[in-house]
């Protein structure tokens, strides 16, 4: 998990340095915060959201095209039965990231040469700690992209939604079990013979 967090953090640091003069944020939550703080207009924020979500989906589809669905394309997937806990944890660490960015940015742009390093350090720290629990994306677009690419709504709505494939699969399992008779024999038009 440390290596994945380090790679993610370094990629983000490079991206922020590369595009920092245009705009330093790739996160819809950060865009919302800048719009609420009136650092950018709502129309501009809307365009940012469209680009952020479209880029995340396209990037994930491209990764799937190159590598297949290996590793679920790094989708943020909470452990079974812990969707609400994962959503709460994700909200807290995303809030911390946005708060740090708001304090380091001058409007929606960089305020000093070390801001990307601070953001990268935060991503690496919480990615390493929260990654094993639920993926720790700290970015709704980054969560949605892999979910769309692997056709899995595990975390799309609020980072804690339902798994469409899991529910369909669960119905298949329950249906198959309902067809099973006693002793594991399948019913095929007639009742299974009782075990004595």
What does this 3D model show about the protein?
- The chain is an all-alpha fold and 196 residues long.
- It has one domain: Up-down Bundle (Glycerol uptake facilitator protein), CATH 1.20.1080.10.
- 62% of the residues lie in helices and 0% in strands.
- Helix 2 packs across helix 4 and helix 3 packs parallel to helix 6 (140-149).
- The longest helix has 26 residues, at 42-67.
CATH-level-4 superfamily name: Glycerol uptake facilitator protein
Count of helices?
7
CATH architecture: Up-down Bundle
Structural class estimated from helices and strands: mainly alpha
Please give the structural blueprint:
Elements: H1 2-19, H2 28-36, H3 42-67, H4 83-104, H5 115-134, H6 140-149, H7 164-179
Notable traits:
Glycerol uptake facilitator protein; single chain; globular; 0% strand; mainly alpha
Tell me briefly what this model is.
The chain has about 200 residues and is mostly helical. It has 7 helices and no strands.
């Amino acid at each position: 998990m440390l290596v994945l967090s380090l790679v993610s953090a370094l990629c983000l640091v490079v991206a922020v340095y590369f595009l920092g003069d245009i705009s330093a944020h790739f996160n819809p939550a950060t865009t919302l915060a800048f719009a609420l703080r009136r650092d950018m207009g709502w129309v501009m924020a809307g365009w940012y959201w469209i680009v952020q979500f479209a880029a995340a989906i396209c990037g994930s589809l491209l990764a799937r095209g190159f590598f297949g669905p290996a590793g679920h394309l790094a989708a943020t997937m909470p452990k079974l039965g812990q969707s609400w806990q994962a959503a709460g944890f994700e909200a807290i660490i995303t809030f911390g990231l946005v708060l740090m960015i708001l304090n380091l940015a001058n409007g929606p742009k960089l305020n000093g040469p070390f801001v990307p390093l601070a953001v990268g350090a935060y991503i690496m720290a919480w990615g390493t700690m929260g990654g094993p629990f639920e993926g720790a994306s700290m970015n709704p677009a980054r969560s949605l992209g892999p979910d769309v690419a692997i056709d899995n709504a595990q975390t799309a709505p609020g980072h804690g939604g339902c798994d469409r494939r899991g529910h369909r699969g669960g119905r298949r399992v329950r249906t198959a079990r309902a067809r099973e008779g006693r002793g594991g024999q399948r019913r095929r038009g007639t009742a299974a013979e009782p075990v004595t």
